[in-house]
Task: inverse folding
């Protein structure tokens, strides 16, 4: 046997194996390996002492080399059977070749089979062990994650509670235990239903029911709880539903954060926003919101009442005794008011010394009147502050109305206006809202607000009333009297708006306009009638007298109309001359110096300040209409004497005297007899248009023809 024979065998074996097994080594390495095995096989076969186990070793080596394809063994055995007999020639004598081949083949097959079996056992074992290892690892991972979860549950600052679907609590973490004061064991005795707070919003429990029914997966809300010791905590609560693998609700987990501190802070801020810090009463903001609530609800038949209080003379207390005393007084008033009211009535401080009480669902004005009386008597006792004993007085405006008839702003305004009526009525009292009075005050307010625009748009006009010489019975002058042709209210007399104009200051512009208008008219009469033109007498309001520009304005108007100052008379009231300011007097003196006539109007209605008559640069005294009324009866000697004394006094001071309000012949004759110079009144003619004065001057209409005027 040559090496080439061996190689040839190894070569064919290689091909047989490559064709039937998957072999990981390269073809050359495989050929070398099989060549080694071939030598081992042949040498064993030819050994003097034949040991068939060599076949077994080769079989084992084949399995070890992974030559385990399905046809591998068969191919190998066929190859050996075919090839080994070729060795007969070189076999030593006495060797039983056929027997050895059979034994060798058998032993190789047995070695191969047992190696293969062992290998598959090994493989199974490896799989089994790998399985064991994997399970152990999974178990470890689970344990680790559970430990992590446990740690989270235990260490969490958030309270965590777990419960079943019936609401039985099955676990609670230490944070939750601490929050509520229950131990874990106590928690597990509790059911979620025991956690209801009396003031829970219904919606909280509605969503909870949805959750345990599996209709929602979680909800979050702020909810109050009662703790074990009866305290109260506010929590930010999130409840989640946990489902099993089949998606069915399994249990619930609640996360609770204690937000009590934040709530307390919010409540404190809320409190501050709605309360007066000094008295702890509700403030204006609260009043606004409460009224909005009352008016937002269904109005049907509901009534509401307000008491609007303002302390009388509080400023004096504050100014003279200091704010400390004022504050104490306000606090006492606040507590007295609170004691007069029930818990459902809102007592508020509106600012300064103003307080307001809101009473809902009153039955009528009587309820509010009773409350106002109660308040007035509660205020009666003096208040001691430090060493002072202070008397508290208050004026109260009371309004009680159906909710449907008004609104918050009007209601407060009405209470406020009514309070001022209580003050005007003498203070330390209450006044009950009067719709008519309120309407007229609101109307006055509207008039006042629109007056200046009305002056500009020409809604005002001037009428003129004759001033008649009582001796000769001729027209000497006219008094200019203003009227307002209001677009909706018709013609308004001065009693409707002069007072308002005084208050608002609009009288300055209005008075200026009247003066200019009257002077234009005076110029027209002068043009038409020359020296027969009447003196024009214009009323001057107190405020106008205080205008620094008065003298300049009068001078300019006279100049614009080229009028002599003596053709103008200004009527002042005593009221405008009160006070000791130098301005008005100096203005009067200048006007007087220019030659403008100055008359004291309505003398007798005011203060009867006789020294004024001497002090002031006057030319005329107008006796108020009340004297004319007094002279209506010829037997009224007292009035006659008074008028005579006044006329004499006026004449002694070089003043002429006009009697106002002469309505009858009796009055006219009386004033004549008492020495009055001029008369004015319905008897001679009511105020009329310039054309009517024209007619008088032309003699077209007789004086005293009341029908014509
Ligand atoms: P007054 O200056 O005393 O004007 C006389 C008032 O008596 C006028 O009322 C006049 O219409 C009224 N009167 C005339 N005859 C009679 C009569 O026979 N009997 C009665 N009882 N009254 C008579 P009027 O026009 O309503 O003016 C009222 C007051 O308004 C005036 O009183 C005057 O103080 C003020 N006033 C009128 N126009 C002006 C004005 O332009 N400026 C200012 N500041 N006040 C004016
Ligand atoms: Mg007058
Ligand atoms: Mg008068």
Result:
């Amino acid at each position: 046997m040559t090496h080439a024979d061996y190689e040839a065998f190894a070569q064919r074996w290689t091909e047989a194996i490559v064709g039937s097994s998957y072999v990981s080594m390269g073809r050359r390495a495989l050929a070398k390996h099989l060549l080694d095995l071939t030598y081992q096989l042949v040498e064993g076969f030819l050994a003097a002492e034949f040991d068939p186990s060599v076949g077994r070793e080769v079989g084992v080596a084949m399995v070890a080399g992974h030559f385990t394809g399905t046809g591998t063994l068969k191919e190998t055995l066929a190859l050996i059977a075919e090839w080994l007999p070729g060795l007969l020639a070189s076999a030593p004598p006495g060797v039983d070749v056929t027997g050895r081949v059979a034994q060798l083949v058998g032993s190789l097959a047995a070695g191969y089979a047992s190696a293969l079996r062992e290998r598959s056992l090994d493989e199974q074992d490896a799989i089994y062990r790998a399985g064991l290892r994997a399970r152990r690892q999974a178990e470890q991972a689970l344990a680790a994650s559970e430990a992590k979860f446990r740690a989270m549950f235990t260490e969490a600052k958030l309270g965590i509670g777990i419960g079943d679907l019936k609401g039985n609590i099955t676990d609670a973490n230490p944070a939750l235990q601490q929050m509520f004061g229950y131990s874990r064991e106590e928690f597990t005795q509790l059911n979620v239903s025991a956690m209801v707070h009396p003031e829970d919003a219904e919606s909280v429990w509605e969503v909870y029911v949805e959750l345990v029914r599996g209709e929602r997966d979680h909800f979050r809300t702020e909810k109050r709880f009662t703790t074990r010791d009866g305290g109260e905590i506010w929590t930010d609560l999130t409840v989640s539903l946990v489902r099993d693998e089949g998606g069915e609700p399994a249990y619930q987990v609640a996360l609770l954060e204690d937000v009590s501190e934040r709530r307390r802070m919010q409540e404190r801020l809320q409190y501050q926003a709605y309360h007066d810090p000094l008295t702890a009463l509700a403030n204006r903001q609260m009043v606004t919101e409460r009224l909005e609530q009352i008016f937002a609800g269904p109005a049907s038949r509901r009534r509401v009442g307000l008491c609007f209080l303002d302390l009388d003379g509080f400023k004096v207390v504050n100014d003279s005794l200091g704010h400390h005393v004022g504050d104490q007084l306000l606090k006492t008033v606040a507590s007295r008011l609170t004691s007069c009211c029930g818990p459902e009535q809102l007592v508020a401080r509106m600012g300064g010394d103003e307080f307001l009480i809101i009473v809902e669902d009153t039955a009528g004005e009587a309820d509010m009147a009773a409350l106002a009386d109660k308040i007035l008597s509660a205020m009666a006792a003096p208040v001691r502050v430090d060493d002072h004993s202070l008397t508290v007085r208050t004026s109260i405006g009371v309004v009680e109305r159906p909710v449907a008839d008004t609104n918050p702003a009007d209601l407060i305004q009405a209470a406020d206006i009514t309070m001022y009526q209580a003050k005007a009525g003498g203070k330390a009292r209450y006044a009950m809202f009067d719709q008519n009075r309120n309407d007229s005050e609101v109307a006055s307010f509207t008039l006042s607000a629109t007056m200046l625009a009305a002056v500009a748009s020409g809604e005002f006009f001037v009428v003129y009333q004759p001033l008649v010489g009582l001796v000769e019975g001729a027209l000497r002058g006219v008094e200019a009297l203003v009227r307002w042709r209001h677009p909706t209210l018709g013609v308004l007399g001065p009693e409707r708006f002069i007072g308002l104009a005084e208050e608002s200051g609009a009288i300055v512009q209005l008075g200026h306009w009247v003066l200019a208008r009257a002077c234009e008219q005076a110029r027209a009469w002068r043009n038409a009638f020359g020296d027969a033109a009447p003196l024009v007498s214009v009323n001057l309001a107190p405020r106008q007298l205080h205008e620094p520009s008065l003298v300049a304005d009068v001078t300019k108007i006279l100049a614009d109309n080229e009028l002599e100052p003596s053709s103008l008379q200004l009527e002042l009231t005593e009221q405008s001359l009160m006070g000791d300011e130098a301005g008005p007097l100096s203005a009067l003196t200048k006007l007087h110096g220019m030659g403008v006539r100055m008359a004291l109007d309505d003398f007798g209605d005011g203060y009867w300040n006789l020294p004024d008559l001497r002090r002031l640069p006057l030319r005329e005294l107008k006796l108020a209409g009340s004297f004319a009324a007094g002279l209506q009866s010829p037997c009224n000697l007292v009035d006659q004497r008074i008028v005579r004394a006044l006329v004499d006094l006026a004449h002694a001071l070089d003043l002429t005297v006009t009697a106002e309000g002469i309505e009858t012949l009796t009055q006219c004759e009386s004033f004549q007899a008492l020495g009055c110079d001029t008369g004015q009144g319905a008897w001679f003619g009511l105020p009329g248009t310039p054309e009517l004065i024209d007619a008088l001057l032309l003699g077209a209409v007789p004086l005293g023809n009341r029908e014509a005027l």
Observations:
- Residues 601-602, 622, 660 surround magnesium ion (ligand 3) (CB under 6 Å).
- The chain is about 50% helix and 20% strand.
